[in-house]
Amino acid sequence: SFHPRAADPQELQRIAETFQCPSMIESSVEAALIRALDLVDDESIVLVTGSIFMAAEARHSWYNHPDLMK
């Protein structure tokens, strides 16, 4: 996120690693959503968490990116 209060992605990744949680860093919420959807099968879900700003950005990407609506 570009929000001034957004957490540093590398720091969040380091924290995830301490819990043996695999993680990836993407350049934008849209890129992360595309990557997540590429990694799941038809029986899976993608859950977007974070701030209201992140959820709004993911929602905007979902409805305005035709390939995501498959």
In DSSP terms, counting alpha (H) and pi (I) runs of 4 or more, how many helices?
Answer: 3
Task: State the distance separating the first and last CA atoms.
Answer: 25 Å
Write down the secondary-structure element order: HHH
Computed over alpha carbons, the radius of gyration is 13 Å
Mean pLDDT: 87
Q: What's the shape?
A: globular
Number of strands: 0
| Helical/strand content category | mainly alpha
Walk me through what this model shows.
There is one protein chain. By secondary structure, the protein is mainly alpha-helical. Helices cover 49% and strands 0% of the residues. It is built from three helices and no strands. The longest helix is centred in the C-terminal third of the chain and has 13 residues, at 52-64. The chain is globular, with a radius of gyration of 13 Å.
